[in-house]
Write a structure and sequence with these properties.
The protein is an alpha+beta fold. Helix content is 48%, strand content 10%. It has a domain at 229-444. The two termini are 33 Å apart.
Length: 444
């Protein structure tokens, strides 16, 4: 996989860094957020759905800016400063461990948000999963750094390849918001939730079996008491499935579903696609939690049935994102509906038997969103959810949608016999609200 086969190159968006002339950094940041040409298109894994990032050059230095709430920004700065002090002078693989400490830029003192600014140092380690170009950073280096963190009392849950840059003489770490610190070694903090997320992410860089085997040593001091409460996604799942099991058992069930949906693909592809775990993050950024769960159910069910069907799902979803951002970055954008409306059309193709070989080929050949939606609108499957969605005729099908989701849920979790009607209704209601959006008809 080479650089030309990454998301922004597929979109055809500019990846240059634009020079900004301004009195100072504060004015430069203000200008960058007024100008869409400073959008961040540099890293393959980052699709900025929430429009939080900007990149620009000011006084011969490249900067990356991130819009954040004030409390989160303060936490990020405080944690990165603590980590920098603790890790100063430590090395891994002959490289210095360096923590990126951003600076805070406030444009308007009355705003509830600010901008975190740091020097742009290049592509993250995660970029390697797209380019196929891997820096000198082995699984042993990765775990040596994890061990250093834990032995120094640092619980850095953001220790993932998307938050790491490998330089010639240093390993740079950033995004410390989800971190905390102990006054003693924190080996026991490597709990099931962290372990799951760690394996899911790093298995894109290292062999899954080798990674899991070498992580076993980090589980020696684990006790169930260190397992955190269910997170938001897990509570949404719990409320949907109504399983009478302990939280740790529920977490294990969710882990199996998420791993099935988001571990690396095993089949070759003629089309570029967003990596499964990145697609999970992207869907979570695009939609509320119920639709994030809906996606994992669809993906897990598709992969349980057939790896090729699941890969096809990734390809079509990726293509819809590409078509949307190709229009969004064009000189004269044509699409009038929000991103969610279009991606829902792609998701609904996987809820029933819409996707034939011909439909898939035609959609992947479409060069505009209008052309892709026309494939759905002209398909012979006139009773499919995707067809009805694009024809604005889903309103009386809530029960059918919920029954279809229930069947998918039972495919991925057979023990969930008492699925919540309220949970199903939350998902179908969101779909119907988007189906009711008149702009989707105008865009189609």
């Amino acid at each position: 996989m080479h650089m030309e086969n990454t998301f922004w190159n597929t979109v055809g968006a500019s990846v240059r860094i634009n020079q900004i002339e301004a009195q100072n950094l504060r004015c430069a940041v203000e200008k960058a957020y007024r100008d869409s040409v400073c959008g961040f298109h540099q890293n393959a894994e980052l699709i900025d759905v929430k429009d939080r990032f900007r990149i620009f050059r000011f006084q011969n230095c490249d900067y990356l800016a991130k819009k954040m709430s004030l409390p989160k920004a303060e936490l990020e700065i405080t944690n990165s400063q603590k980590a920098a002090a603790i890790l100063s002078g430590k090395t891994v693989n002959g490289k210095d461990i360096r923590v990126i400490v951003p600076q805070k830029i406030v444009i308007n003192p009355d705003d509830e948000y600010c901008f975190l600014l740091s020097e742009y140092l290049g592509h993250t380690l995660h970029e390697s999963t797209y380019t196929g170009i891997y820096p000198d950073f082995s699984v042993d280096d990765c775990l040596a750094l994890l061990r250093t963190l834990l032995q120094n009392g640092i619980v850095y849950r953001g220790y993932l390849q998307r938050n790491i840059i490998i330089g010639e003489k240093a390993v740079y770490l950033f995004d410390w918001e989800d971190s905390y610190f102990r006054n003693q070694p924190a080996d026991h903090e490597f709990n099931n939730l962290w372990h799951t997320n760690f394996v899911l992410n790093w298995s894109y860089i290292f062999a899954y079996d080798e990674l899991v085997g070498k992580l076993a040593a980090f589980r020696n001091n684990y006790t169930p008491e260190n397992e955190p409460p269910l997170v938001k996604y897990e509570n949404i799942f719990k409320n949907l499935v109504n399983l009478d099991v302990a939280d740790d058992q529920l977490r294990n069930i969710i882990e199996k579903i998420v791993f099935k949906a988001e571990l690396p693909a095993t089949l070759p592809s003629r089309y570029f696609y967003i990596r499964p775990h990145d697609m999970g993050h992207l869907i979570a950024d695009t939609f509320p939690g119920e639709i994030d769960l809906f996606y994992d159910i669809l993906a897990c069910a598709a992969r349980t049935e057939n790896e090729a069907s699941w890969l096809q799902m990734l390809q079509t979803l990726t293509h819809f994102y590409v078509l949307y951002y190709r229009d969004k970055t064009a000189p004269r954008p044509q699409l009038s509906a929000p991103l969610q409306n279009y991606i829902l059309a792609a998701l609904l193709m996987n809820l029933d038997n819409f996707m034939t070989t011909d439909n898939f080929a035609q959609i992947m050949s479409a060069t505009t969103m209008k052309a892709a939606l026309e494939v759905i609108k002209n398909a012979p499957q006139t009773d499919s959810f995707a067809y009805l969605y694009c024809h604005h005729r889903l309103q009386n099908r809530a029960a059918d949608i919920e029954n279809a989701i229930r069947r998918k849920m039972l495919t991925v979790c057979p023990t969930a016999q008492n699925i919540s009607e309220v949970g199903l209704h939350n998902i179908s209601r969101y779909i119907l609200q988007k189906a009711d959006h008149t702009a989707i008809r105008e865009a189609a």
